[in-house]
Design a protein that fits this description.
The chain has 85 residues and is an all-alpha fold. Helices cover 59% and strands 0% of the residues.
């Protein structure tokens, strides 16, 4: 779930684009660890690739997810059936 939370928090990529990317990968964890060359094949827009790679470098994955857990907040991603239409 922490990888899904990370992906959901990349603010500079719109939801429609995130949905399109998410449909092409198995999990957000796979996206988080994807090689740059594979990412560029998956995501054609150079700026979107740059934003994903930047987020991987700058987002404090474990720390941010721990904050979420401490607040006892449940993250519902777009893949969750409970996500509002």
């Amino acid at each position: 779930m922490k990888y899904e939370y990370w992906f959901a928090n990349i603010e500079t990529i719109g939801n429609k684009r995130k949905i399109a990317i998410r449909e092409q990968i198995t999990s957000a964890k796979d996206l988080y660890y994807i090689e740059e060359t594979k990412l560029k094949k998956l995501v054609k827009e150079e700026e979107v690739c740059h934003r994903i790679l930047k987020s991987v470098k700058e987002w404090k994955l474990n720390a941010e997810y721990e904050k979420l857990l401490k607040k006892e907040v449940e993250c519902i991603t777009i893949q969750d059936p409970r996500y509002p239409e």
